Amino acid sequence: MTTSRTDAALTPEDHEDIRQLLARYNLAIDLGRIDDWVGCFTPDGVFECIGLPEDSILGGRHEGPEALRAYADGHYGLHRGRARHWNWNLLIEGAGDRATMTSYLNAYSAGQGDDAVLRATGIYRDELIRADGQWRFASRQVTIDGG
Question: Would you put residue 38 in left (φ > 0), alpha (ψ -120 to 50) or beta?
Answer without folding.
Answer: alpha
